[in-house]
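Continuing from the previous page of notes. For each protein in this section, the sequence appears first, followed by its structure tokens. Read the first protein now.
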Amino acid sequence: MKRKGGHGVLAPNSDKYIGMRKALFLALALSLAYGARAAYWHTDFGQAQVKTYGENRIMLVYFTSSDRGGLCERLRQEVFSTYEFQVFADRHLVLMEVDFPRWKQLHHSQIKANRDLADKYQAHGWPIIVLLNNRGEAIGRMGYKEGGPDGYIKAIEQAANLKEKDKDKPAAPSSEATAPFSGARTGPAPKYTSLTLKSISGTGTKRLALINNATLSAGETGKVRLGAGEVKIRCEEIREASVIVTVEGKGKRELRLFTPPETAKAR
């Protein structure tokens, strides 16, 4: 180590200095990659249901008390905040948080909605995880357990009957899926040659945008089918008849609501 001005300063060409720079660069790269996959947690059950059914996913309903610490905080740190779980959730899950905080203030309508869900799924304690399939049927239930994300991922795979070949690709609508109301089967998954805003539902801050095969709320990031693959988009803003999105982390663009040719001629 060389000294400069009487203080211990590492020389730029020293092995230790170069090693520290590499370690710092690696930590920064991991931090950026980690942050890019931050999980999106719904608090509106209706929105979560629409996304779960529309994308044929599993809904993970997490009953928690977010500001009490204890097992809820451990579950968040040891499982939900890990890279492994967030990658898995990005491919297969819709995450729904049902919070019963001690200090944080919730709107009275949110408090009532959360209590109704707790009653419906008999979740009077924290933390409790309930798994729902895309028809809203409960298929699994678990609490806190040690061991990190692997045990939870395996339990979800078993409950959802995820086959080995399905683990490395996003969930896709099944031609055998049964619609919850009409009972009609869905057709083959469509192919998309461009990003298309198919519909906007909801009102105010609870709007949802259907872009190709993905249902997103404002601020949510998801993978959307395009051509033979997928692209990652972030829904920045949902307007009356258009949305603002960021595609693959690049510049923002506006998608206008798709109007079928027949409708356009009628106008």
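Done with the first. The second protein uses the same format. Note its length before scrolling.
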Amino acid sequence: MKYDIDSYLFVLFGPSGVGKSTILRYFESRLGAESAPKYTTRPSRNTEEDAQDFIYCSSDNFPTEAILVFESYGHMFGIQLDAIAESFRKGKSHVIIVGQSDDVKKLLSIYGDKVVVIFVFCDIPILRDRILGTSNLQRANRWTAICEELSNIYSQLGCVNFVINNSNSLERTFEQVDTIISKFNNPSNSSMPACKDIEFQ
């Protein structure tokens, strides 16, 4: 089932490893939202997901037109603004992942009320196991930077509309996403909710 709602830009952010990409894929399948690969200088992990989500380039040939650039974990990323505009032109929502709340604010300055900000998190012991238990050494070496990011996370929550707790099963995570989507499927909802914590215990 695809929900019949107005076009929105769903923006997912949160620490590395909390499951943002999984939730992005669910928005695509459940809502019919579109996404577009981001440009990045980050080395490829040679996975199918990386090939789908990123266009790899060096800092020397990084595009500059119709791109919103941000930095995350020492690498450049570029959001294709033309792809967002094309989704809206077709009457479709668009979903993206960004690094921090400063990147969210840039998108808010461009798209205003079209932006729905969703902060994704999971319990720290679960996150630690996901990161340090990975076979990807590059990602495991990022744990120190993630811990530093977590220590400053509360200062970034002022722009958030919804929070997803991805500590439990995917079924419960997707229930939270469906609850968020349902709020935009109700014609009586004429304004964006304030920071809202939607959790299923």
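What the second structure shows: Confidence is low (pLDDT under 50) at residues 192-201. The CA atoms of residues 24 and 100 lie 16 Å apart. We return to this in next week's lecture.
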